[in-house]
Amino acid sequence: MFRHILFPIDGEAPSIAATGPCVAFARDAGARLTVLHVTAPFHLLSTSAEVLADTPDSYAAHSLARARARLETVAAEARAQQVVYETVTLEHAEPYQAIIDTARQRQCDLVAMASHGRSGLQAVLLGSVTQKVLAHCHLPVLVWR
Questions:
Q1: DSSP letters of the chain?
Q2: Fewest C-beta atoms under 10 Å: which of 35, 55, 109, 117?
Q3: Which uninterrupted H or E stretch holds 87?
Q4: By its UniProt entry, which Gene3D superfamilies does this protein fall under (predicted)?
Q5: For 33-87, how does the pLDDT look when each residue is reduced to its tens digit (9 = 90+)?
Q6: Which domains does the chain have, with CATH numbers?
């Protein structure tokens, strides 16, 4: 049914926990997997300690190193389960849009992603990438909680 699955990860506990099940789902479906990590662009004005402590070049280098490490976790699982995969790192101000655009550009037929499970005021203040993908994506979206 599904031949190409996009698995966006952010490196936090929910996406790490979803790695095994997502790779197993791809294996069982006979699908290939594209693993995506979206990094935030450098902003001169920011509340993020990572951005405030860096110059644009060092921020880019640190972001790429973090992305590679996070992607390698999924790549190792895909190799172990013999799933064909590729990894992609993108810089984008809106992660949900990067996810949707990547799914379209790479001709994926499913987006499989984790949810942080935020609710109440925390969900309102922080937003939800998963909710935005669900609301705007033209593809089926499988959410792990």
A1: --SEEEEEE-SSHHHHHHHHHHHHHHHHHT-EEEEEEEEPPP-SS-S-HHHHT--HHHHHHHHHHHHHHHHHHHHHHHHHTT--EEEEEEE-S-HHHHHHHHHHHTT-SEEEEE-----HHHHHHH--HHHHHHHH-SS-EEEE-
A2: 55
A3: strand 85-91
A4: HUPs (3.40.50.620)
A5: 999 999 999 866 656 665 555 677 888 898 999 999 999 999 999 999 999 999 9
A6: 4-144 (3.40.50.620)
